[in-house]
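Listing S7. Sequence submitted for prediction.
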Amino acid sequence: MEHYFTNNTNLRSELRSIIYENKGHVFTFFSDLGVFSKDKIDYGSRLLVDTVLAKEEHIPKTLLDVGCGYGFLGIVLAKVFDSEVTLVDVNKRAVHLSERNIKQNKVKGKALESNIYESVEGTFDLIVTNPPIRAGKAVVLEILEKARDYLNPDGVLWFVIRKDQGAISILKLLEPIYKCEIVKKDKGFYIMRAKIY
């Protein structure tokens, strides 16, 4: 199986669209083979978006979605918050789809090919990620730990990890860097919020 966090230039294309609605906004997302959750919005991502929209105290002006796939997290949050979003992924096809989905859903933002934060410039009010667990714990930790370098002083990092994929151990590893809290637990998914001390 080809992993969604790699680039396979020989992978054929089977474009499909996914309709999603939130807060009165109707979204259309183009998806394809070789990207995460290609046929439907995965439960963890939906739960993360709903929790951020319900619990985030400040409306962010700038958003960063790391490991964005076809852009679901960042685009929905940017549309509802009326923010500007930067979407980054190591997967070229995901970046291409994200660019298309930014235009399709009329949000302000851009998509960049980036190995984690490699191509990211500036700082953000909110960073969101559904990290690629199958890429390994080192990659997941790099995404979460290095987020601090890209957060504004009052910025916040939101992420989702399943309990059985090491949510609690990852939380402990982040404690020296962030004030972390589990905001929501549902069907084994933990939605976490982290702020720099």
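Caption to Listing S7: primary sequence and predicted structure tokens for the chain studied. The longest helix spans residues 43-55. The mean pLDDT is 92.
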